[in-house]
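Extended Data, panel c. Modelled sequence:
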Amino acid sequence: MAVRLPRPHRDDVRISVGGLLGGFALWGVGLFSRTPDDPISLVDPGWVVLIPLVVMAGCELMRRTRPRAALLIGTVALTADLLTRGSLVTVVMFTDLVYAAVLYGSPGAARRIPWITGLITVIATVWPVAAWRKPEGLLIGAFTGLVTFTPAATGWIVRNHRDTAIAERLRAEQTALLAEMDRTQAVTAERARMARELHDMVANHLSAIAIHSTAALSLDDPTTSKEALSVIRENSVDGLAEMRRLIGILRDGSGDREPAAAPTLDGLGSLVDSARTNGLDVVLETDHADGLPAPVELAVYRIVQESLTNALKHASPGAVTVGVAQRDGCLTACVSSPYGDRDEPRAPGSGAGLVGMRERVALLHGTFEAGPEDSPTGKVWAVRATLPLSQGESA
């Protein structure tokens, strides 16, 4: 199967054609590098100079696609040119092949060629001076360096600049990609945080509204309906106020842009009183020091709030116990409610509450458990969250 050679670059074609036409022009006017009586010229006919010229022009077609092969063949063509009257265009095209071999060749070739051409330049300088004992021998070394080492060094410098530019561009693209990933993660995290806050602040009030409105509609008792409507109004007003505060934070230039004070454990009493107003029999037990980290206090408050909301919707009749205790550098919250078979919840739920509680605990590197378990008073649904205080201080 025949091997298909790669197509030469259009710029290489231009260089090859231009060099070939320039060489033919010099040959046509009889302009050569050496005179017929030059001792180095072994072939006298002037047309022979065209053979290395054509070969060198063909090598220019491979300067990008096969730089190593082009340089090897070009070296042979240059050696043959030395045996003729010589063409300046052939020498110029050879310097371009040396430059291209360093610039487009393999990394190993790019490192070796400057060293090899530098060694050749040193030999071409020292040997004529030592052999002829004349300073004119330095001209041979200077010409050799101009033809070999100079284009090799130039190619090495250009290649280093090109590689540096590519590396900087890749680094900039990676930096931009990482910045975009960080921005996306930050947006996702902020959306999740806002979803948790919105759920925890509003779900409790809306659940109470749904439960008491159902009671008001199902019971034909003016006194009960009036009490239910009072609870509904209270929860509606509180929920609306919290929604306004949240919207004020989200929207620029609308109302109160300052965030409301974060709930603390001191507000658990009011939270429990509100749950009792909504119809829960709640017992609160606390044992903790003052001045706890704000992220831990907020997380515990929201977990207790969501647990009471779930108890209001799903718990069987009976006492709900809320316990908050500080032990061994951790703050533990436990909410247990009677667990039994119910035909349906008192208010619909989406299941996002447990997800939000678990996310809050995970952000503070704590542990979270929720599920049914046995107790001395019967089967209960227990929610337990243990939060290390050290993580809250660093949050």
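The longest helix spans residues 137-218. This feature is highlighted in the accompanying rendering.
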